[in-house]
Amino acid sequence: MRKFVFSFIMPAIMAGAAYRFRYKLLNTILGNQMLRRIGINAAMNMPGVRSRLINSAFRK
């Protein structure tokens, strides 16, 4: 029972902390060149993100 409760409480606390410090985390991630490159490559592999960026870049 203790392990069961702990397995739900700990992720909830971590998610709350990540939400509270989301902008600091994002600035830290984007400040690192390697992590920024990985994030951009991952985003560009998503068809919806890629099409929106391409459309906005080449719009008249």
Topology at a glance:
Elements (H helix, E strand, L loop, with lengths): L1 H19 L1 H10 L1 H12 L2 H11 L3
Number of strands: 0
What share of residues are in beta strands?
under 5%
> Helical percent range?
over 70%
Structural class by helix and strand composition: mainly alpha
Domain count: the total is 1
The run of helices and strands is HHHH
Q: Cα-atom Rg, whole angstroms?
A: 18 Å
Major β-sheet, in short? none
Mean pLDDT comes to 88
State the end-to-end distance. Answer: 61 Å
Shape: elongated
Please give the count of helices: 4
- Enumerate the spans where pLDDT stays under 50 for 5 or more consecutive residues: none
What does this structure look like?
- With 60 residues, the chain is an all-alpha fold.
- The protein has helices at residues 2-20, 22-31, 33-44, 47-57.
- It has one domain.
- The protein contains 4 helices and no strands.
- The model has no long low-confidence stretch (mean pLDDT 88).
- The longest helix has 19 residues, at 2-20.
- It is elongated and about 60 Å long.
How would you summarize this macromolecular structure in one to three sentences?
The chain is an all-alpha fold and 60 residues long.
